[in-house]
Amino acid sequence: MGVDSKDVAAALKAEVFPVLRAAGFSQFKTRTAWRIDTDTIAVVDFRSLGSYLGSAVGATSHSFGTVAGLYFKAVHATPWAKEPLPARPDEWRCHARRVLRKGFFQLWCWRPDVWYVNRKGTNLESVIGDTVGAVRKQALPWLDDLGDISRALQVFESRDEGSMLPGIMHEILGGGMDSFDRAEISSALALALGDRERAREAWLRVLANPYYETLSDLRTLAAERIALIQGSEAQR
């Protein structure tokens, strides 16, 4: 008798969700948990691979990956913000994301970001136990670290996105250094901290980035954001 995604979801709910609940997560769906804080919304998602991706990486459909994400409320408080703050953002929409790594080698699935559950489920207990460890040692400390928006701003201004292996991102920070998407986050965090000069500098770095020399639409938007920042300063 085998197992399926429902069995894996039940095991996650029984063993992993209590760890998240003890860390302040209060909203849950089948495979996703949210923690609502003053400045951020933290998300941890345990995504089933499904048959297509599972077969592509040599894993069962009910094997899964685990990703932690942080959504910064400040992005919706900028002078140019138009979209409302989502109550429970999906993990893939988060501004900072960290792909968790399993802590043991699995012969039938080499990928460090996939917890392989065999067809009969005989390894499910060990897989869930390792997932608990990954949440405690990787997700929660990272979420707490970047949950301090002053610290998050330092990270977004100075840290490149990280990689585990070619094609497998470890940490995703909204784009490369001095990119438009990175500036959206950095400037919002700086404004939330009351530092308009750092917010302006984020967009100046975009304008100085050679990549955007021929992208007139994005250069125009960057210039408009600088003007809005300067205008809000003048109104104080």
Brief summary of the model shown:
The chain is of the alpha+beta class and 236 residues long.
What does this structure look like?
The chain is an alpha+beta fold. It has two domains: 143 residues, no CATH class; 55 residues, no CATH class. 44% of the residues lie in helices and 16% in strands. It has a seven-stranded antiparallel sheet, covered by helices on one side. A hairpin with a 2-residue loop joins strand 6 and strand 7. Helix 1 crosses helix 4 and helix 5 runs antiparallel to helix 6. The longest helix has 23 residues. The protein starts with a helix and ends with a helix.
Reconstruct the topology from this structure.
Blueprint: H1 5-15, H2 17-22, E1 27-28, E2 32-36, E3 40-48, H3 50-57, E4 64-72, E5 96-99, H4 124-146, H5 149-158, E6 162-165, E7 168-172, H6 180-192, H7 196-208, H8 216-234
Antiparallel strand pairs: 1-2, 2-3, 3-4, 4-5, 5-7, 6-7
